[in-house]
Amino acid sequence: MSHFPFQRLTAELSALIARTPPGQQLLSEPQLAKQMGVSRATLREAMRSFETQGLIRRRQGAGTFVVGKVPVIESGLEALESMETLARRKNLPISVGNLHVEKVFADQDSATALGVPLATRLTRVRRVILADGRPAAYLVDTLPEAILRAEELPDSFNGSVLDYLLERGDPLTASRAAVSAIGAAATVAKQLEIQRGDVLLHFSSQLYNDKGTVMDYSLTYFIPGYFNFHIVRRVGGA
User: Which one has a higher pLDDT value, 187 or 79?
Assistant: First the structure.
């Protein structure tokens, strides 16, 4: 059984997940690997594909659970909108958890991204976006304190820095984002209740005003399966 075909393994896992009620825990990795006659490394690789589809969720120290059908947020990348706005449009239930607003000083990374000197006073807003009560994305926004002070945010703040700046009347004009797939670092994995190294979709973005000043530097970590992003492009010079 050491050369168990990978396709057969994924097929058996798919059938197992399909017949397991949402919320129920699967066997532990050692038990499941033994039952299917594969190594834990092979099993873990196969499980990743189901996790990226949002069908299962591995929780650090707790095990692997079947998620079932999850709400999907769809969006084109041509226009910048907050997740809260997208969710409202599609009547999807989302909420904000683990909201932390803190004062920090610019390190090399944030100073470069924001175009400010090292040790500039900044405001950092960290939170988790929950879909049906389950973590779906982790967001970190960092802004110069001259643009946003921590104490300015009202008690009714819904977690969207973009929406807050727009409602305040800031002349926001453009956003530049780098998109990549990464393995979850320990701090991010803890927030999202996943395993360290699990694959995430990562956006690193800068938000500009009408004078070309960077207003916000944001890092967003999406769990695949909850989001469907697409791009509409022109063909050639059309």
Answer: 187
Domain with CATH 1.10.10.10 in the chain: 6-66
CATH class of 73-230: alpha beta
Whether 70 and 132 have beta carbons less than 8 Å apart is answered as yes
Residues 10 and 16: their CA atoms lie apart, in Å, by: 10
CA 181 to centroid of chain Cα atoms: 11
- Model confidence at 3, in pLDDT bands (50, 70, 90)? very low
pLDDT in tens, 124-150: 999 999 887 788 899 999 999 999 999
Q: What angle is formed at CA 152 by the lines to CA 205 and CA 103, rounded to 5 degrees? A: 60
- One-letter amino acid for residue 67 of the chain: V
Contact (CB, 8 A) for 51 and 26: no
CA distance between the termini of the chain: 55
Supply the pTM of this predicted model.
Answer: 0.78
The fold of the 6-66 domain, in CATH, is Arc Repressor Mutant, subunit A (1.10.10)
Residue written as tokens 């819904």? Answer: 158
Nearest Cα neighbor of 148 from 160, 165, 173 is 165
Task: Name every residue whose Cβ is closer than 8 Å to that of residue 174 and which is 6 or more positions away in sequence.
Answer: 207, 208
